[in-house]
Amino acid sequence: MSKNCIYALKSNNSELSYIGSTRNYASARKAQHRYHHRMYMEDKSSLFCASFNVLNCDLDPELIILEEGLEHLSSKDFHIREGYWIDKKKEDGWDVTNMLCPYHDEEYYRQQRKKKYIRQKSQKRAYYMANREKILAKQKANYHSKKKIIHQFYDY
Questions:
Q1: Please, is 58 exposed, middle or buried when counting C-beta atoms within 10 Å of its C-beta (0-12, 13-18, 19+)?
Q2: Measuring CA to CA, which of 1, 80, 91, 122 is 20 to 30 A from 137?
Q3: What whole-number distance in Å separates Cα of residue 37 and Cα of residue 47?
């Protein structure tokens, strides 16, 4: 197996995959993922890794070497390559479980959250406008039923 590589753990039972990097042998890193997953499932560790999502579906996922021979790269460049593969495989349609990309900083995630908030806000607004009458009727019915309960409770 390869050392100093970018690898993917791809479930044989679902579309889930996890992408990681290691300076060690990829097979040894896979064994570490499995060990940490077992400790987590037995409540012997609270450490969670996104690879556990894959291991929950398949305890022996396929190990795919995406890029090898990276011993000449600095740690920063090594993580940049890992992030490249995460982004590339997501673009290729893989269901990648990685929650964070190793080369993105807090500002990047702040911008992503802001974009998501704006997108969800516009989606909620569009849903409300399309279903306004139903929503208002339901709110009115809830208001009157609660008002009736309060009046019964306090004998108004």
A1: middle
A2: 122
A3: 9
Segments making up each domain of the chain, as ranges: 3-103, 109-154
pLDDT tens for the chain, residues 1 to 156 = 678 999 999 999 989 999 999 999 999 999 999 999 999 999 888 888 889 999 999 999 999 999 999 989 888 888 889 989 998 999 999 999 987 766 666 777 788 788 888 888 989 999 999 999 999 999 999 998 888 888 887 765
CATH number of 3-103: 3.40.1440
pTM equals 0.65
Assign 64 to helix, strand or coil: strand
